[in-house]
Write a structure and sequence with these properties.
Length: about 180
C-alpha cells in the first residue's frame, strides 16, 4: 500500500500526494497550481534533462511547461509547438530550453531527424506526446502522465527513469 501524504501549500490550500520511489502521484486543482508545480521543476532543470509529458489534448501539459519555463528563467512566451515541432526558450545567460511537440510526427525516423542529442548538449528538453517517438527518447527521463479529473482538476503521475530524474522527483516531493 502506498503512503498518503497531505501537505499545506501557499495560500493555505491542502493537497494530497501518493509517494513511492520512483513514482509520485499529484492532484492539481487548477491551472495556477499546475504552473507552480512546473516552476519548481523548471528551477531545477539542467542541460541534458528530459521531461516527457503524456496526456490527452487539454490535459495540462502546456500549462505545466509554462511554469517550467518561468521557473527555469525564460522570459519568452510559452505556447504549444504543435505545428513547428520545437520551440526554444532562452535565458539572459544564454541557456536554452527545448519544448518539443511530437503529436504530428508520423514515424521514428522523422523524430530522429530532429537531433535530440544536439538539443540535449545545449539544454534541457521537454517532450509533449513522447509516446509517438518512444523508441528514441533517452532512457534517463522523468515521465509525467496527465489525466482529466474534473473541469479544472488534473491528475499527474510522475515516474523517474534514472538517477537524475529521481533527484528531480525528490525535489517535487519536498512540496510545491
Amino acid at each position: 500500500m502506498l503512503p498518503l501524504y497531505v501537505f499545506t501549500f501557499p495560500h493555505g490550500i491542502i493537497r494530497s500526494m501518493i509517494v513511492k520511489a520512483p513514482l509520485m502521484e499529484f492532484t492539481s486543482h487548477n491551472a495556477d497550481q499546475t504552473r507552480r508545480l512546473g516552476m519548481k521543476l523548471g528551477g531545477a532543470l539542467q542541460r541534458g534533462d528530459v521531461i516527457c509529458l503524456q496526456g490527452d489534448l487539454g490535459a495540462g501539459k502546456t500549462t505545466l511547461v509554462q511554469g517550467m519555463a518561468q521557473g527555469w528563467g525564460s522570459a519568452d512566451a510559452v505556447s504549444s509547438p504543435t505545428f513547428i515541432l520545437v520551440n526554444v526558450y532562452r535565458r539572459a545567460d544564454g541557456g536554452q530550453l527545448f519544448h518539443m511537440d511530437a503529436y504530428r510526427l508520423d514515424s521514428t525516423s522523422e523524430a530522429e531527424e530532429l537531433d535530440l542529442d544536439s538539443m540535449l548538449d545545449q539544454g534541457a528538453l521537454i517532450i509533449e506526446w513522447p509516446e509517438r517517438m518512444q523508441a528514441i527518447v533517452p532512457a534517463e527521463r522523468l515521465w509525467v502522465q496527465f489525466e482529466h479529473l474534473g473541469a479544472e482538476e488534473r491528475g499527474m503521475k510522475f515516474q523517474s527513469h534514472g538517477t537524475r530524474s529521481e533527484s528531480l522527483l525528490e525535489l517535487l516531493r519536498g512540496g510545491i
